[in-house]
Write a structure and sequence with these properties.
Largest sheet of chain B: 8 strands, parallel
Number of strands of chain A: 16
Largest interface: A-B, 41 and 45 residues
Order of helices and strands of chain B: EEEHHEEEHEHEHEHEEEEEHEHEHH
Oligomer: heterodimer
Strand order of the largest sheet of chain A: 4-3-7-1-2-6-5
Order of helices and strands of chain A: EEEEEEHEHEHEHEEHHEHEEEHE
Strand order of the largest sheet of chain B: 3-16-15-10-9-8-7-4
Structural class of chain B: alpha/beta
Distance between the termini of chain A: 44 Å
Radius of gyration of chain B: 18 Å
Shape of chain B: globular
Distance between the termini of chain B: 18 Å
Amino acid sequence: MSGRKHAVVSGDERVPAPFGRRAARITANRASGGYRVFSALDSGGPEPRAGQFYMLSAATGWGTGPAEPGTGPEFLYLPRAFSVAATERLADGIRLDFLLEDIGPGTHRLGALAEGEKLLLTGPLGRPFSRPSELNPQATGAVLVGGGVGVAPLAIWRHELSRAAIPIRVLLGFRNRQHSGGMELFSRGPDKDRLSREAGGGAPESGAKPVLCPEVRLASDDGHVGHHGYVTDLLAVLLEGGDAARSAAVFACGPPAMLEAVRQLCGERGVACELALESPMACGFGACYGCAVPLAAGGFMRLCVDGPVVRGEEIETAMVAGAGHG
Amino acid sequence: MNEPAVDLCGIPLAHPVINGSGTFDAIAARRVFGDALLAEFPFAAFVSKTITPERRPGNPPVRIYETAAGMVNSIGLPNKGLEGFLAEDLPQLAELPVPLVVSVMGRSIEEFTRLVERVARRPEVAALELNVSCPNVRSGLVIGEQPKEVSSLMAGLRDLTAKPLIVKLTPNVADPAAVAVAAQDAGADGVSLVNTLKAAAIDPATLQPALGARRGGLSGPAIRPIALAQVAAVAEATTLPIVGMGGIENGEDALAFLAAGATAVAVGTASFRDPLAGARVRRELAAGLSARRLEGVRGRRGTAPPAVAASTST
């Protein structure tokens, strides 16, 4: 298969974020199952790495007046942390895609942003995913495990890994149909065609092979699609056998319970894993010390500067109190 | 554009805006934003997060909770402790392009003495801020809530250094002026106020306390009117230089604190929303003074009415 390789940046090589907060124009905002995907054009920042996040707020109706009645706190004040789900370099800036679930005043306000409206953002922030070979020198590829809105950083990670021609398995779990939004981020179609072009494979019609298409397996709690059960059931099967466990590098993002199940399963089998965690956050750049996550060695880390991607064995638990924001 | 330089207890500030202790980590910010942090440092002096004698991990999650126009925090003073700070953080903070104020907290006069002695002798340090929102283990009373405790603490510390000692006042008192007077009489060089207001939050889903430590402190625009009242009260009762803070979001807010009697202002929670809030407040404050054709503001002192005059600020 022809194609140039694209270097995957190491977890600790971070490009400094522009200092401050800047405006980006909303270019799209649409429903995706029970979630929403919105896009903004960032003319002032670098391309983010998979696993990184932004602190987002709206330029209006945020901290300047009441939130929608019935959606929670009377006034919005703090920004919200969102992992980037997809990114594309365009002529006049970087397009950033975010996945959201409307469960509170912040996500409600962001979900209601119209095309042309201003999004305020700080970022890209945080430690991105590591190269699979950094996580496990014997890794033959990457296993991506996600659930709910947690599929967002895995979508961009799958894209980066594909461009580097690294084999991928993707396991996604959803509670029910309502919570299965974001699947389009993994779908065939325009995304696949672009991957083909970027890998030097040419347009599909030319007969060149597309970039390795990741195998996506699904699980659902309610059985509406795929395996009737948990995504960790699928992971357990995948990791069966010493060879499989030895050559795996697992990357997970999803609800705390799912992450903790992945962490424990990988711990039991001696499998290297990285988790993209969530925690309550106010600032996103290490100022407030609000995003503490307990360390296995005792004490806490600040998720925004030392994470949000963490190694499974680094932390005491992935069941972080207060994770998930509205 | 008027850019009022300020002399704060003998420390020259290029402009009146500094940061609230514990609301900006310059070392982490440098990691995140690179050297742009130094080129565009938002504050005229940098106040460190409070250092305690021993390393502290801080409180378990949840540490922060959004409220109307602000937030409640119960962070728990995580810090590397005195030795860790001196060895690891101080050299990095010394690279900042502005004077450094180190905030310290002890649970006894002995602990405060050790902190002040070790920190004040470092040439990188311009001044110390005494965080007295903590109990004195001997008496069980919160130092900053009792004029006698503050007097006794200041008396014990005053002779340890000639560097400015600024007392960070807690607002959780009926009479902040009395505490400020006690600080002044015992030799404090200045006061900074207000710290956070005692507060709590209940998680609507569980009907249990939302914060891991159950109680915390309220900050942000919600507390601004309370902070202004306390700055005014302290300005009337003492002649100490005052660093005023509490929900400052913009230049007009900063101007209000100067008019109430503050010598300088601190931006805290606003930085969480906008990392460059300090720089923005500075710009807007200068613009606000310009628009009013003022070079500075001299706020209330003693019983005189507010004097807003075209004079250089002190």
